[in-house]
Amino acid sequence: MKNSITIRELARLSGVSVGTVSRALNGYPDVRQDTRDRIVRLAEELDYTPQAAARTLVTRRSHVVGIFLETGKNHPDIQHPFFHEVLVGIKTRLGAAGYDLLLFASEEPGNGYGTHSYLKRCNHHHVDGAVLMGLSADDPEVERLGRSSLPCVSVDVEFEGLHSTWVSSDNFQGADLAVKHLMECGHTRIAHIAGPLETTPGRERLAGFRRAMQASGLDYDENLVVYGDFYFESGVSGMEKLLALDAPPTAVFVASDMMAMGAMRAIQANGLSIPGDVAVIGFDDIAIAGMAHPSLSTIRQEKAQLGELAAEALLRQMDANGDEDGDDPAANQLLPVTLVVRESTCGDRTEAVT
To answer: The pTM is what?
Structure first.
């Protein structure tokens, strides 16, 4: 497996000696400017980092996997309970296989190897593979990573690449289960607090909600859809907007449990009862969902299992990448979800999982 270029290869491609490459990249004045420019340009194109040459010749692996977890301006995703549980699954499976994890910061690195590039950072730290969570598949740097030879797996991002695959929960199934459950509870005016549309879960849960409403013969009303960021505060503000409508909803499907908690706070702050005035169902089944008052009905994702599946997929990719005659192991995986019924939708019913 070879994910980064060595100084000898850079010298060969530049048509100069290893010493000339070293002097050019370290700013020595005895290198002609046109030669220096050619070497620097080629080094940038090939994502050369000096540390790549130091990789041991005894083993072709570092047994380190990089984790890219996007951090937003207001809410670092590492603080979200969903990612905690996924990371536990990744750590458990990769740790058992003898790998360590390196959690990358997503801000500009500023450590001397140039501008931000996921691929450069992977090469710089000699990782054998990478896990992507919360990133956009449309990011040019993510696309660049996908074109490389580095094995990659993404969670909840439909990431396409030469040596990559993705795992995700079935967001469409989850939305369908939520809408059907609310209808069984007698609701027809159902709202949705959506996640950010630049994320795969946000888009798919909204599309699933629309599809489920239309398939059930209910009107899909754009006025009953508001947008959040998967966190508590946006659930509060989104629910406030819905309650301010001339004809507010009697039930709401919320794209994350954290936002659902915020929605319940807003309902109660307005003197309304749950589920008597407004029923609420979330998505994720984080630990505190069952501790809320009332306890939160939700769509359960098997979060640790998602992490384990991602780790297993990456292990297959890394093994295949080290075997030039091996088959391509890429197989995207969609994990089923389940409905968890608690007090926030059917207050007098005991908890049930279907």
So the answer is: 0.78
